[in-house]
């Protein structure tokens, strides 16, 4: 394609005004396994699908705690994510030490965006190849942000990133209006259901599904596998009941997925 | 400056240190530790505030109490809290009590030439589940002991603990027969600091007492005399 003329360096614009290196970096995010986040008025949740490269290896961690009131889910280059995580932990700890309070989620995300942008405009540096979903609870409100290699960051009611995330996003788009009033249990269930949409052929087990919650009177906590299993059981239960009813709906989803692949 | 007789008279020089008073103590049992401190903050013969905490819970298994200058206590505790979080983020688990004890010692020695005016006691459960108490001087000399007291009331409390915990100078009881139970230890700590409050003017108002065992930390508060 024509774009190969203008993609050899981060500092080269294409005639359409695009920076292809940044878009390639965002592709790295899209290659990672699914991570999604959603929030209600009182809680914010992230749900991730943890891949393992083969049967012998452990599942790749995708959720990390930043501070008592904040955490992230990652998709993309894990090594880059570690660098950003260290940065966020440092910022929040420093703020706590100096001002004695929790650093607002939005402020960390802004600093992170600035940091990410710097790498898109500096000689010899490359963009961070990782997208983060940041969830936090501060100032009496829940927060969900997405950061990307481009340095853009947005606040969301719900969002999914990584491979096959469109299916999860479709599910979230259908259901997000109900989220604000939900309790924690129902919110997590929606998250797991959304993950199921993008899990494809992979079966969800307590080992490859990661869930973390934060909210009012709930410090950021990564749920233990046994707790994860209780949610998976609930999904399987309802699935068994409505399996026959939704046969047609499933067919439609498969069609949509095949369309996605063709566009690539 | 010299007087007319030729002797040098020392003008009182400004000192960066003040003593805000207060007492702290801790006692270790077989599988628990009890740690307590009063909350009165004084300056000279006045009371600055009746509630200024000298206690910090570092992990579920370890806490620290400090007496001396409130500003240095506050700062030391802030630094310690941050360091504990950094450790937990780096190692994926909370600091062990031994690690906390060593860290406090190093933090204090780091300021060897402008010390924190703090007299600290760290208490908690070690890795084997045994109760432990660590006492320090201002520059971080570390010693693991069974009990310790620091602060303005320490000279009133320490002999009581010598007699009741270490069973020193007692003719009425055999060491082999004696075991310090949790209830006895709590009562002992409460009585010791209450007695200190009777005679030491800098000890009083409230006491924050904490019991640490394998299940975690249980915090409590009670009143002392307000005079």
UniProtKB/TrEMBL annotation, chain A:
<dbReference type="InterPro" id="IPR023332">
    <property type="entry name" value="Proteasome_alpha-type"/>
</dbReference>
<dbReference type="InterPro" id="IPR029055">
    <property type="entry name" value="Ntn_hydrolases_N"/>
</dbReference>
<feature type="domain" description="Proteasome alpha-type subunits">
    <location>
        <begin position="6"/>
        <end position="28"/>
    </location>
</feature>
<dbReference type="Pfam" id="PF10584">
    <property type="entry name" value="Proteasome_A_N"/>
</dbReference>
<dbReference type="GO" id="GO:0006511">
    <property type="term" value="P:ubiquitin-dependent protein catabolic process"/>
</dbReference>
<protein>
    <recommendedName>
        <fullName>Proteasome subunit alpha type</fullName>
    </recommendedName>
</protein>
<comment type="similarity">
    <text>Belongs to the peptidase T1A family.</text>
</comment>
<comment type="subunit">
    <text>The 26S proteasome consists of a 20S proteasome core and two 19S regulatory subunits.</text>
</comment>
<dbReference type="GO" id="GO:0005737">
    <property type="term" value="C:cytoplasm"/>
</dbReference>
<dbReference type="InterPro" id="IPR000426">
    <property type="entry name" value="Proteasome_asu_N"/>
</dbReference>
<dbReference type="InterPro" id="IPR035144">
    <property type="entry name" value="Proteasome_alpha1"/>
</dbReference>
<feature type="region of interest" description="Disordered">
    <location>
        <begin position="245"/>
        <end position="264"/>
    </location>
</feature>
<keyword id="KW-0539">Nucleus</keyword>
<dbReference type="InterPro" id="IPR050115">
    <property type="entry name" value="Proteasome_alpha"/>
</dbReference>
<feature type="compositionally biased region" description="Acidic residues">
    <location>
        <begin position="245"/>
        <end position="258"/>
    </location>
</feature>
<dbReference type="GO" id="GO:0019773">
    <property type="term" value="C:proteasome core complex, alpha-subunit complex"/>
</dbReference>
<keyword id="KW-0647">Proteasome</keyword>
<dbReference type="InterPro" id="IPR001353">
    <property type="entry name" value="Proteasome_sua/b"/>
</dbReference>
<dbReference type="GO" id="GO:0005634">
    <property type="term" value="C:nucleus"/>
</dbReference>
<dbReference type="Pfam" id="PF00227">
    <property type="entry name" value="Proteasome"/>
</dbReference>
<keyword id="KW-0963">Cytoplasm</keyword>
Automatic annotation (TrEMBL), chain B:
<dbReference type="InterPro" id="IPR029055">
    <property type="entry name" value="Ntn_hydrolases_N"/>
</dbReference>
<dbReference type="InterPro" id="IPR023333">
    <property type="entry name" value="Proteasome_suB-type"/>
</dbReference>
<keyword id="KW-0963">Cytoplasm</keyword>
<comment type="function">
    <text>Component of the proteasome, a multicatalytic proteinase complex which is characterized by its ability to cleave peptides with Arg, Phe, Tyr, Leu, and Glu adjacent to the leaving group at neutral or slightly basic pH. The proteasome has an ATP-dependent proteolytic activity.</text>
</comment>
<keyword id="KW-0539">Nucleus</keyword>
<dbReference type="Pfam" id="PF00227">
    <property type="entry name" value="Proteasome"/>
</dbReference>
<comment type="similarity">
    <text>Belongs to the peptidase T1B family.</text>
</comment>
<dbReference type="GO" id="GO:0005839">
    <property type="term" value="C:proteasome core complex"/>
</dbReference>
<dbReference type="GO" id="GO:0005634">
    <property type="term" value="C:nucleus"/>
</dbReference>
<keyword id="KW-0647">Proteasome</keyword>
<dbReference type="GO" id="GO:0005737">
    <property type="term" value="C:cytoplasm"/>
</dbReference>
<dbReference type="InterPro" id="IPR001353">
    <property type="entry name" value="Proteasome_sua/b"/>
</dbReference>
<protein>
    <recommendedName>
        <fullName>Proteasome subunit beta</fullName>
    </recommendedName>
</protein>
<dbReference type="InterPro" id="IPR016050">
    <property type="entry name" value="Proteasome_bsu_CS"/>
</dbReference>
<comment type="subunit">
    <text>Component of the proteasome complex.</text>
</comment>
<dbReference type="GO" id="GO:0051603">
    <property type="term" value="P:proteolysis involved in protein catabolic process"/>
</dbReference>
């Amino acid at each position: 394609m024509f774009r190969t003329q203008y993609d050899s360096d981060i500092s080269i614009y294409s005639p359409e005004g695009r920076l292809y290196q940044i878009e390639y970096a965002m592709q790295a995010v899209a290659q990672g396994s699914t991570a999604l986040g959603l929030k209600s008025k009182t809680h914010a949740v992230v749900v991730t699908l943890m891949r393992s490269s083969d049967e012998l290896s452990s599942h790749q961690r995708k959720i990390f705690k930043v501070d008592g009131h904040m955490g992230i889910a990652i998709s993309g280059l894990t090594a880059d994510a570690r660098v950003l995580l260290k940065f966020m932990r440092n910022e929040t700890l420093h703020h706590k030490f100096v001002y004695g309070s929790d650093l607002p989620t939005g402020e960390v995300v802004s600093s992170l965006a600035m940091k990410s942008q710097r790498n898109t405009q500096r000689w010899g540096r490359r963009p961070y190849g990782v997208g983060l979903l940041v969830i936090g609870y501060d100032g009496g409100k829940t927060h969900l942000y997405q950061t990307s290699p481009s340095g853009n960051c947005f606040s969301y009611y719900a969002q999914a990133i990584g491979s096959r995330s469109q299916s999860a996003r479709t599910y979230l788009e259908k259901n997000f209006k109900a989220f604000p009033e939900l309790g924690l249990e129902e919110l997590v269930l929606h998250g797991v259901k959304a993950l199921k949409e993008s899990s494809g052929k992979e079966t969800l087990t307590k080992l490859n599904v990661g869930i973390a919650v934060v909210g009012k009177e709930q410090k950021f906590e990564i749920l233990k596998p046994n707790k994860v299993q209780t949610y998976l059981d609930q999904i399987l239960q309802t699935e068994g009941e409505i399996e026959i009813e939704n046969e047609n709906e499933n067919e439609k989803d498969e069609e949509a997925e095949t369309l996605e692949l063709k566009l690539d | 400056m010299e007087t007319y007789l030729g002797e040098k008279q020392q003008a009182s020089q400004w000192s960066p240190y003040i003593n805000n008073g207060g007492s702290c103590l801790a006692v270790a049992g077989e599988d628990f530790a009890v740690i307590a401190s009063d909350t009165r903050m004084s300056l000279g013969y006045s009371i600055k505030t009746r509630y200024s905490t000298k206690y910090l819970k570092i992990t579920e298994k370890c806490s620290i109490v400090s007496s001396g200058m409130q500003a240095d206590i506050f700062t030391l505790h802030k630094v310690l809290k941050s360091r504990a979080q950094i450790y937990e983020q780096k190692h994926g688990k909370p600091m062990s009590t031994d690690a906390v004890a060593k860290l406090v010692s190093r933090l204090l020695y780091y300021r060897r030439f402008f010390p924190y005016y703090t007299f600290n006691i760290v208490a908690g459960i070690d890795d084997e589940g045994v109760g432990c108490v660590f006492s320090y001087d201002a520059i971080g000399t570390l010693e693991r002991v069974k009990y310790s007291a620091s602060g303005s009331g320490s000279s009133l409390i320490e002999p009581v603990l010598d007699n009741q915990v270490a069973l020193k100078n007692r003719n009425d009881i055999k060491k082999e027969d004696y075991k310090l139970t949790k209830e006895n230890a709590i009562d002992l700590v409460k009585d010791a600091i209450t007695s200190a409050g009777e005679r030491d003017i800098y000890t009083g108002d409230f006491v924050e007492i904490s019991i640490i065992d394998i299940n975690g930390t249980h915090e409590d508060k009670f009143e002392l005399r307000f005079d």
